[in-house]
TrEMBL record:
Cross-referenced SUPFAM superfamilies: Acylphosphatase/BLUF domain-like, EAL domain-like
Domain BLUF: residue ranges: 2-93
Protein name stated in the entry: Diguanylate phosphodiesterase
Record-level Gene Ontology MF annotations: blue light photoreceptor activity; cyclic-guanylate-specific phosphodiesterase activity; FAD binding
Length: 413
């Protein structure tokens, strides 16, 4: 069994394209030693490479490729396994698209096919190659700056925790984390997430409950979330609360309870975003649909949380017509290096744009993740890159600023 790995990247500015011949010559020797097949395409700005060989050898080679300063914005497009080589002998071959017609390149690659009936256009690796040669996806090549082009600075000191006196806090509390528009330096909303009294996870709290009491406790806890939000002083910001999807079905007049507690805390329903988790199990769909209608009629807004983590996302999207979706952290993690994740998130952005649904990227931890998502069209973010969740209080936000070194470099160009 062999690994086929396909990636693309962007040539660095200091690299002369006439040095590619020497680079490929050395790669040819190395690939033969490692029993790896390599096909490299270059269009004057981007590289596209297919590597094929023993998995351990390909992974080791790719790891060193990622560290090579001659290119950047390296994105894996495909990782697949085959019984035998798709593209002939070991070594490395370069196809410079500036000097060869696309039909010549495609035919040359086809001629290297090793399958009994030669490669067909249904082969994914060949399809990727054809797409690059024909430049059909270049609008999706989102280039980002190096991570050290930005620094993240807090613009205010951390405020002390507000002291609360609520009986419920013996059993649980809430942590608050902002959702921000980084380039506008604006806090859009705060998310209140249930925690144990000393900061333990929500799962830890809910694990002590069973049956209908889980849903009753889920709903009742929001009374404390609203009270804490008012004490913290969210002003005219919105506050997002998470609900299990079936809470609105299993607890009678759940929406009425929420509205009463919102107004009792001096807030208005329009400030509240109710986020239901995509990976929650929904039964009694007719009652769930009725509850969604009641929720929206009350003035509260609806979001789908953890979008992309479960199996019900697209169906839930059509049923609920939410105001916002919050893309799951697992989809965001290292998105700047993953072609499959980029394709999925770009599709999410497109259909949300068509439906006028706001997109929030959650769990953002790396500058590169934020930069790629911003380039893709996402404006609102949540994650430790900007602010960590804070128990019983609002955390300080760190805002991005272009570093002096990068500004100086740009001026010198």
């Amino acid at each position: 069994m062999l690994l086929t790995l396909v990636y693309r990247s962007h040539i660095s500015e200091h690299v002369q394209s006439d040095s590619l011949v020497e680079m490929v010559s050395q790669a040819n020797v190395n690939n033969e030693l490692l029993s790896i097949t390599g096909i490299l395409l270059f269009d004057g700005m981007h590289f596209f490479q297919l590597l094929e060989g023993p998995e351990e050898a390909v992974d080791a080679l790719y790891s060193s490729i990622c560290q090579d300063k001659r290119h950047h914005n390296v994105v894996v497009l495909m990782r697949d396994y085959v019984q035998s080589r798709r593209f002939g002998n070991v070594g490395m071959e370069l196809f410079d698209l500036r000097h060869h017609h696309e039909d010549e390149v495609l035919q040359a690659v086809l001629d290297k096919g090793t399958s009994k009936y030669q490669l067909t256009y249904e082969d994914r690796a060949l399809q990727f190659l054809c797409t690059f040669v024909q430049a059909r996806e270049k609008e999706n090549y989102l280039e980002i700056l190096p991570a050290d082009s930005w620094s993240f600075l807090a613009d205010e000191p951390l405020k002390p925790e507000v002291e609360f006196i609520f009986p419920e806090m013996q059993d649980y509390s809430f942590a608050f984390q902002p959702i921000v528009d980084p380039l506008s330096r604006e806090i859009i909303s705060y998310e209140a997430t249930i925690r144990g009294p000393e900061g333990g996870s929500a799962m830890e709290y809910y694990s002590r409950l069973s049956g209908i009491t889980i849903y009753e406790a889920d709903l009742k806890s929001k009374k404390l979330a609203f009270a804490m939000a008012q004490k913290i002083g969210i002003s005219d910001k919105t506050i997002s609360i998470k609900l299990l999807p079936m809470t609105l079905v299993m607890v009678p007049d759940a929406v009425g309870f929420l509205v009463n507690e919102i107004t009792a805390c001096g807030l208005v329903p329009e400030q509240i975003v109710v986020a239901i988790t995509e990976n929650g199990v929904i039964t009694r769909e007719d009652k769930f649909t009725t509850a969604m209608k009641q929720l929206k009629a009350s003035g509260m807004r609806l979001a789908i949380d953890d979008f992309g983590a479960g199996s019900a996302g697209l169906l839930l999207l059509t049923q609920c017509q939410p105001d916002k979706i919050m893309i799951d952290r697992n989809m965001i993690c290292d998105i700047h290096t993953s072609g499959p994740k980029q394709a999925v998130v770009q599709a999410i952005i497109r259909f949300c744009s068509a439906l006028e649904i706001s997109v929030i990227a959650t769990g953002v931890e790396k500058p590169e993740e934020w930069m790629w998502l911003d380039a893709a069209g996402v404006c609102n973010f949540q994650g430790e890159l900007f602010a960590e969740p804070r128990l019983k209080g609002a955390p300080v936000v760190t805002w991005p600023e272009v570093t002096y070194e990068y500004q100086s470099g740009q001026q010198a160009l």
